[in-house]
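quick one before i forget lol
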Amino acid sequence: MAQPVVDDKLPVPPGRSGCPINRTIELLGDRWSLIVLRDIMFGGNTHFRELLNASIEGIASNILANRLAKLVDAGLLTRHDDPSHRQKVEYHLTEAAIQLVPVMAQLGAWGARWLDTTPELTVRAELLAAGGPPLWERFMAELRATHLSGAPTPADGVLAELTAAYQEAVAAADSNGE
């Protein structure tokens, strides 16, 4: 599948240098930005309260609000009023955030290889690594449909596969008394 052409750069202030690695670290290198994107991307969470309650790392509400605003301002998330409730807001990935899937997959694979992790939190990273670029492309297409076009999350898509594997690993850990 061909990558969409992105002509515009993200609306972020100039960095300390023009190095692309430095600029990326300045944008995403704080403790929480990639975690928030991860929870939207892999958790399917789009509301503030969902993101706050689902955070296994325990993000504080003020930090979450700050990171969501930062990611919206940077063009990685969009913010929309939720039609089901006038006081709720939905956050959706932009194309730039969706194109972080291979980066997230590589970070997960590296962490699974080199760091002490738990099986239930590692299974998705292992599946993404094993599936490689073809799986990443399928997942990005699914994210585009749900976040950019408003389609429902498919019951048989990549996110469903990753979630099922995670739930199986949690059940296995629970049955082993971990």
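fyi The chain is about 60% helix and 5% strand.
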